Amino acid sequence: MSVVLFLVATIVGYVLYSLIQSMKRPKNFPPGPDFIPWMGNTIQLRKEARASGGQHLVFEKWSKKYNSDILGIKLGSEYVVVALSFPLVHEVHISEVFDGRPDNFFLRLRTMGTRKGITCTDGQLWQEHRSFAMRQMRHVGYGRTEMEQYIEKEADSLLTYIDELHGEPTWPGSFLAPSVLNVLWTLTAGKGIGRSDKRLQKLLQLLNRRSKVFDICGGVLSQMPWLRYFAPNWTGYNLICQMNQEMHAFFLEAINEHRASITKENAESDLIYAYIREMNEHSDEAENSTFSETQLTMTILDFFIAGSQTTSNTTDLALMMLALHRDVQKRVYDEITDNLEKHKIPVNLCNREYFPYTSAFIMEVQRYFHITPVTGPRRALRNTTLGGYNVPKDTTVLIGLRVVHMDKAHWGDPEVFRPERFLDADGKVFRDEYFMPFGQGRRRCLGDALARACLFSFLTKIVHRFRIELCEEALPSVVLQPGITLTPKPYKVRFVNRQ
Fold it and tell me: What are the pLDDT digits (tens) for 397-406?
């Protein structure tokens, strides 16, 4: 009997100890709500996010409640710190100690159960493959004239598609994403994807569903992965598995085609060929090499995610704002026609300095909507401090970009859409240090060059050819839908040919 009592006492003692530890805040941890036993703030955050319209708004509310621009919370068993001011955001961006990525169930599930690719890795693997991938992408034209030529070609194809709508009401978000992905896939695989390709349409549908089901913290799959056994659809587990299978099959088909056709002449003509060449060169040391088919697949996935949805969504929002602000649309159009017709200056990235108002408009769209209001997640590589508070090793760190882009003390009237804020007294564009839609430092977004080029080229060509008009039956809203990224609610406009 004494043995049974001892065992019961031990179990009860362990449970009590575990309960107390799960509620305990680390020493000098940033302020925030109390931790609920074993759950931390998971349920509270999800509940308030649904009521408020997104996690970012909850973080901002808690920031005011606790009178702190840095928050300390707990999601499941993970400590999380949220930076919510320009100085703190800048420090997280540029400090090497915050270059890590969390190693949790959701991030591994995103990369098919591995810790591969570029976006969700850190350390030597991240450094080696980010450097290799970006070097090879630049070699085939990423961020250079070749990429601009791909984009110009795709922009012309986009104009043809819009022309065939014959002014019928349409939602731009329904046709923009394939244009961005076509450019990206040309750089990656050496050829585009047909707009009518059913595989592409399915992948885009999965990416859209993914962006709405999850949040920057990974949702409940990150904090309570065991729930997938009881609610695989509700948690998004089945969606991620389906997306992984579809993506893997799509990428593997292209990889196998490249394997069968690789030669010395084409070994560096696109990213897939370059990876296969590298794998072949290290075949004798395969056990020690980090170049593998899985790594290649995850790298392609990272570029897909980094360069597709955010760019097409921003373009969608830019077209929406042009329809809502006819005076802005007229200024953009007048600037384009003035340069083209009077000064014979072609509309391309090389001449972007001649289109300051158009550039300022694009920047204001990115600032005003901040479709990635919270970025990251980062991981503290060692015990450190931020804003005078302790950040324990392996703490997840989130970056509040929306707070920076809507800082009233800096912008004056951040809630007003005003492209002129990015123009100096001489009418030239200037870079404001508080403007950081692609992040900063070594973890800066992989797709920034593609995004900037697509936004400028697509918008200028569309505005020059078409007048964008609202449709009363489906008016747009500036309130976006929450998710991993914020997305516009479907609306409709008419593209009226100016010619």
Answer: 999 999 999 9
